[in-house]
Amino acid sequence: MLEVNGLTKHFSSGILQKQHVKAVDGVSFRIKAGTTLGLVGESGCGKTTIGRLIMRLIEPTDGQVLFDDIDLLTLKKRELRKIRPRMQMIFQDPDSSLDPRMTIGTSIAEPLKVHGIVPKHERSQKIRELIKTVGLSPEHVNRYPYQLSGGQNQRVVLARILAMNPDIIIADEPTSSLDVSVQAQILNLMKDLQKKFNHTYLFITHDLDVVRIMADRIAVMYLGKLVEIGETHDVFGYAKHPYTQALLSAATRMKPGAERKKQTLLKGETPGPIDMPSGCRFHTRCPRKKNRCMIEEPELVEIKGGHHVACHFI
Amino acid sequence: MMQHDKHDSWVTNTVARVRESRSAMLGLATVVSLVLLAIFAPQLSPNDPTEVCLGDRLISPFKESKYPLGTDHLGRCVLSRLLYGARVSLAVGITVVGVSTAIGVALGVVSGYYGGILDSAIMRLVDATLSFPSIFLAVVIAGMLGRGLASVMIALVAVEWTSYARVSRGSVLSLKEKEFVESARSLGARDSHIMTRHILPNIIAPVIVVATIGMAYVILAAAALSFLGFGAQPPTPEWGAMLNAGRVYMRTAPYLTILPGFAIMLLVLAFNLLGDGLRDILDPRRVVVE
């Protein structure tokens, strides 16, 4: 359905001494139609860049994005514009995702107009339908984004996206700027919509609790590379990569009555993506580091059906 | 803050805030009254502004009821000439600012949106224009084009468009990164759609501020050029030209320079007050963020 192969993005800066930042470095994964892949990692690891690369909001350095066997990265501008409605993105900040000068109704009508999806006289009917689907009321149509709360605005964003009836939705931290209670509402809404419309989600987040609820599969990213990918159950229950293990132990919340596990805390800072460590990128902070890690970069290896890990010592 | 008034938009918001700002209101009131005086000049003028009456030369103001503000060296009614002069100044201001805004905003938006070589080319042109003192450049251009109001207007547009290009380009650069613009791109909208529907409405506020202050500058510059003899030619009643003609009689008939000078000052000051007030109200940073 959606297949990403060797996706790479290097940003270069400086005029005389070019410095290359490897924001995304050879990332590959596949998402089956109607399922959710959760992409997790700390901030700055390149997860947002991946979302934007797939959407072609920025141009990749190398790689392939296959969407129903169409390579998105080779499409010309016009072809790309035609296929765009089929894949949509939800951004982190709902308040700036909507044009402040447009009413909610105009914003939702925009995709309908741009693509001529619904004839003019049926538009207001369609808008009312969409607004209901995302749990807002028709009276919101004439309001402006600044008159709505963040949660309501994110619903408007969803309505706008639903207007295009997309196959794939890339959600880039869609709830991280919302209150916890509102977060739950939006996440539930997204799950309901997925069931109803068979959406494929790429869910980008740093919040492990959120991803555990939302995702069928999880990919863990560190400094522009995937270190582990597998079923949610496998990754949470049987994490193999030391980075995933550290991430999970840092986030695990105590349940009443549960035994308190010993935390594996990472030492040191994340190295900057400019002076990337040699060999395994994680070796500067890895508790299992051996000499080999500093020289040889580990590849993703399948350890169990669909569970891949990039570490020399599993 | 949630306001559930469906008519509440940024326009009504702005109007409400203009009302609160004393200097903006004062500027606005003055501008409006001067515009009204200009519009109704034919009805308000006691005499034909170009009618020469050598028998009534250099009558001081408040002396004769036929000439409330006196007459000039050719016996023309000063009040009528001032009223008609407002028409000329405002017409020049509106035309120059209108054309400059259209050119400047179009180039600025395209420049900021596409970036790259196009952006560099347009911005270097702006820099080159700005590297000359603007009034000097206008004098040179007006001199090349010959006398007359039309050449003054062309000269002023050639200088003025740069401010609009700069301001709109700057606003576009920050808007371009906004998520709603990316969202419009990802829904498959054309660049032209994004620029006219999303970018333009969001840069209007700073452009209005620049245009208001630009009006003051253009009116002053047009008067200056007319004073220097480039702009309005006799017998057109124009404040700058009146000032120049009255210069010779400064000792015997000071009102011939004081009155048009005061008129210029009043109009320019009014636009400046309004522009400054609007700048505070429509602060570009605040407007884009809101």
| Rg measurement of chain A, Å | 21 Å
Choose one word for the global shape of chain A: globular
Number of distinct beta strands of chain A: 12
* CATH superfamily heading of chain B: MetI-like
Q: What oligomeric assembly is this protein in? A: heterodimer
Give a verbal description of the structure.
The complex is a heterodimer of chains A (314) and B (290). Chain A is of the alpha/beta class. Helix content of chain A is 31%, strand content 23%. Chain A has helices at 47-54, 77-83, 104-114, 123-133, 150-162, 180-197, 208-214, 232-237, 242-251, 291-295; strands at 2-13, 19-31, 36-40, 62-67, 70-71, 87-90, 168-172, 200-205, 217-222, 225-231, 301-304, 307-309. Chain B is mostly helical. Chain B has a single domain, classed as MetI-like fold, CATH 1.10.3720. Helix content of chain B is 73%, strand content 0%. Chain B is built from twelve helices and no strands. The longest helix of chain B is centred in the N-terminal third of the chain and has 37 residues, at 78-114. Residues 1-7 of chain B have low confidence and may be disordered. Chains A and B meet through helix 2, strand 6 and helix 3 of A and helix 8 and helix 9 of B.
Summarize the structure.
The complex is a heterodimer of chains A (314) and B (290). Helices cover 31% and strands 23% of the residues of chain A.
Label this structure with key terms.
heterodimer, A: 314 residues, alpha/beta, 12 strands, B: 290 residues, mainly alpha, MetI-like fold, 12 helices, disordered N terminus
Question: What is the element layout, followed by pairings?
Answer:
The complex is a heterodimer of chains A (314) and B (290).
Chain A: E1 2-13, E2 19-31, E3 36-40, H1 47-54, E4 62-67, E5 70-71, H2 77-83, E6 87-90, H3 104-114, H4 123-133, H5 150-162, E7 168-172, H6 180-197, E8 200-205, H7 208-214, E9 217-222, E10 225-231, H8 232-237, H9 242-251, H10 291-295, E11 301-304, E12 307-309
Parallel strand pairs in A: 3-8, 3-9, 6-7, 7-8
Antiparallel strand pairs in A: 1-2, 1-4, 4-5, 9-10, 10-12, 11-12
Chain B: H1 10-20, H2 22-39, H3 41-44, H4 78-114, H5 116-130, H6 134-145, H7 149-176, H8 179-186, H9 191-227, H10 239-247, H11 255-281, H12 284-289
Helix pairs in contact in B: 2-4, 2-11, 4-5, 4-7, 4-9, 5-7, 6-7, 7-9, 8-9, 9-10, 9-11, 10-11
